[in-house]
Amino acid sequence: MNKKIAVVGAGNVGASCAQYIAEANIADVVLVDIVEGVPQGKALDLTQAGPVRGYNAKVVGTNDYKDIEGASIVIDTAGVPRKPGMSREDLLNSNAQITTKVAENIKKYAPKSFVIMVANPLDLMTYHMQKVTGFPHNRVVGQAGVLDSIRFRAFISMELNVAMSDTQAMVLGGHGDTMVPLPRYSTVSGVPIGELMSEERINAICARTADGGGEIVRLLKTGSAYYAPAAASVDMCKAIFNDEKKLLPASAYLTGQYGIKDIYIGVPIILGANGVEKIIELKLDSAELKALQGSAATYKEHLAILGY
Fold first, then answer.
1. Mean pLDDT per 10-residue segment, the chain (308 residues)
2. Do 26 and 42 reside in the same domain of the chain?
3. Range of 169's domain?
4. pLDDT of residue 118
5. How far apart, in whole angstroms, are the C-alpha atoms of residue 124 and residue 132?
6. Domain end: 97, 113, 144, which one?
7. Cα gap 38→137, rounded to integer Å
8. Mind telling me the catalytic residues?
9. Long-range contacts at 95-104 (CB < 8 A, ≥ 24 apart)
């Protein structure tokens, strides 16, 4: 029997996740949404693309959470998207209610699954998902750091006119304005970007990375990013399924690392068959550590709004 990945939310992010999973031939996909006909229609459309896109994965759509039964991984994209002028934190209360319902159904129908959170505000919803499901912290992880880092990598590539595949980048902190890009840990084929561009350009790219999602929201005007968030999520699925022991930044639960505890925040992790297998503590300078701890403090305040 093929492995199964459930994608909750059949909007642009969820449908893109389903497409990338199918094209990677890593698992069958169940696309879940509360709107009748939408997940079924998108799943059928994706199925019909299979013969020319070269995949044999089954893609089905449903309005019934019972159909996620047996899923090894659940990607939760369900939530209200950002609109121009809104911060991710503006979505807090409305998306917390949605996440509660999703979490209760995951706990009921896929109690052994790993959960990859995509819904915003990402770090807060990841914390909320873990609390409602009661799953071990290693099985609930947020994809934000992967997304922020691939945006950073893309901007480095665009600036230097080099292959995107040769770039590596590290972005820590919350998935929002307080994120912490780390140029010292960002390279092109092992060469630090500080040797390839000016400090002024690095600072500009860091600022653009922090505003990466907002820039797309302003351009689209009626929605938010979906191709890159979906790509980041599916990359994490591959790391779990293939036990890649992949070092990547993601929203993980801290228990004192970096002087932070009882919060989900973006840090480097090892992601493998057991989910979050290790948290890597980089040697940060005082300014970097202060920025990371400041980011965490901001999200602590937001958690209080949710009653934590």
1. 90 97 96 98 98 96 98 95 68 88 98 96 95 98 94 98 97 89 96 97 96 93 93 97 97 97 96 98 96 93 87
2. yes
3. 145-305
4. 96
5. 12
6. 144
7. 32
8. 175
9. 95/119, 95/120, 95/121, 95/125, 96/124, 96/125, 96/128, 96/306, 99/125, 99/128, 99/129, 99/132, 100/128, 100/132, 102/8, 102/76, 102/78, 102/129, 103/128, 103/129, 103/132, 103/133, 104/132
